[in-house]
Design a protein that fits this description.
With 249 residues, the protein is an alpha+beta fold. It contains 8 helices and 6 strands, in the order αβαβαββββααααα.
Length: 249
């Protein structure tokens, strides 16, 4: 397990390397460090601005080799944004997570709360786009239907997966309702107590089909209630279709 002092050292070395790299013309810290809420478990989030003539693939490969040589890299994961920004996530041998994103010069900007510019210049910030509640509502009933059929067919583990997905959609709707960030569950624990209790009650305590059916009914009732806040008309139509399967007398 990495130590806090090690994380600080790794971060300082990465920033120093960025300042010396001719292919990097700007850098910023984002995430918990930039927001001033870093704790024992926080990772490193460093945003890098590529020079106009930089070969992105070559730069990423070079930085990957450098991290492996200096700190030992157990594995990496690439996530590409719709704009073409590469987020390379590193898992170091010490279990420290390091997120490096490589931004084309014309895209480098703040896209979330917490952006600490270290050097270079940034374009005008943009606000993050949250989940689309209309799509979330639809995905939720789809998972609810699949959970119902999985239980009826005796497929307990498929039902577990569908119920987990249904719960995730409910959580997203609740976070949107209360102005909280659902991304990776960042602010789920700040939901009102009654909502957290309802979510807890909806968790199955085993993979027994009877218990899974109880969980499905509780989650479905909770989902229909939450949906009313976002779209009362749609919620009414969903009630007509789904309420017979909630176990409600």
């Amino acid at each position: 397990m990495f130590e806090v002092a090690e994380r600080a050292q790794v971060r300082d070395e990465l920033i120093a390397e960025a300042r010396q790299d001719r292919d990097i013309v700007g850098a910023a810290l984002v995430g918990s460090t930039a927001r001033g809420v870093e704790d024992r478990w926080s990772d490193i989030d460093l945003v890098l601005k590529l020079a106009g003539n930089a070969d992105e693939i070559a730069v990423v490969a070079r930085w990957t080799r450098s991290l492996d040589d200096k700190f030992g890299v157990a594995d990496t994961l690439d996530v590409m944004s719709r704009e073409g920004v590469r987020y390379r996530v590193f898992l170091l041998d010490s279990s420290l997570q390091v997120d490096l994103s490589f931004w084309p010069r014309d895209l480098f900007r703040s896209t979330e709360n917490g952006f600490r510019l270290l050097f270079g210049s940034a374009n005008e910030p943009t606000s993050p786009t949250g989940p689309d509640s209309e799509r979330v509502i639809g995905m939720a009933w789809l998972y609810a239907i699949h959970a119902r059929s999985a239980i009826a067919r005796g497929r307990s583990w498929q039902a577990v997966m569908m119920l987990d997905e249904l719960r995730d959609q409910i959580i997203t709707l609740l976070c949107l309702q209360h102005g909280l960030n659902p991304w990776h569950g960042r602010e789920v624990d700040r939901l009102p107590t009654q909502d957290l209790e309802a979510l807890s009650d909806g968790r199955a305590t085993s993979v027994d089909l009877t218990e899974l059916e109880r969980s499905r009914q509780v989650l479905l009732r909770h989902y229909l209630t939450v949906t009313e806040h976002h779209d009362a008309k749609r919620a009414a139509a969903l009630r007509r279709a789904l309420e017979p399967f909630t176990g409600k007398e």
